[in-house]
Give the backbone structure.
Amino acid sequence: MKIALSIAGSDPTGGAGFQADLKTFNSIGVYGISVPSVLTAQSTAGVSDIYEPPVEFFSAQLDSILRDVRPDALKTGMLYSLEIISVVAEKLRQYSLKNLVIDPVTVSSTGVSLVKNGALEAMRNYLFPLARVITPNIYEASVFTGININSENDMKDAAMRLSRSGAQTVIVTGGHLQGTAIDVLWDGEEFLTLESERAEGEYHGTGCAFSSVITACLALGYDVRESAVKAKEFVWNAMRSAVSLGRGMKILNLGQHR
Ligand code: PXL
């Protein structure tokens, strides 16, 4: 069985974080392993606290599993600090890990910052150059490029600018823009535009699910374009069957797409 690793934050609701990633890997038929980078106290209404375990322990978790198990692909989600990001970069090299997908998480769906000072620069400088794919949404793409994104053309500009950081493929997800939901993929040579209807309402965990499907598909040997098409479809289905678990945002249904 193919194996995918999630290095991401913990979200007790299971709507985002490594819990959502594991459910998604399972749905695609890939065995999921996970190393939590940081813990959040969180409900469907939002993040109320963040705890960063000692970085030595984070590093020990990675060593322990990676000495034993070799993932076919991996993704990163909420990484939170410069120290955590530095360890990830070191371990990627140490264990020659391939098929890295980076979801450059910066802020929660409810607006809470999920990065400390220095983390954005570290992500760009240490991790993007090692990535097969990065999947910023329009907020993240504008934070990293300084481009104000209001249209498909802005998304394309941002994708091209971001690819200069060394990531092989950039996919800017535009679900938060008005109009139809457009994602723009740029591989340094050609654009691919993926379009779907807009699902009305607010959903938690769309970015986690999208990047996890891509990771699982890469583990299975699909190319990046095929993986992106599958991810778009998976997230659309998961939004349409989303559940209202608590009083806050809807949680994607990540379990029923085999
Ligand atoms: O959706 C981004 C995200 C990623 N990872 C964790 C989160 C969130 C949003 O709240 O809590 C752990």
Q: What stands out?
A: The two ends are 15 Å apart (CA to CA).
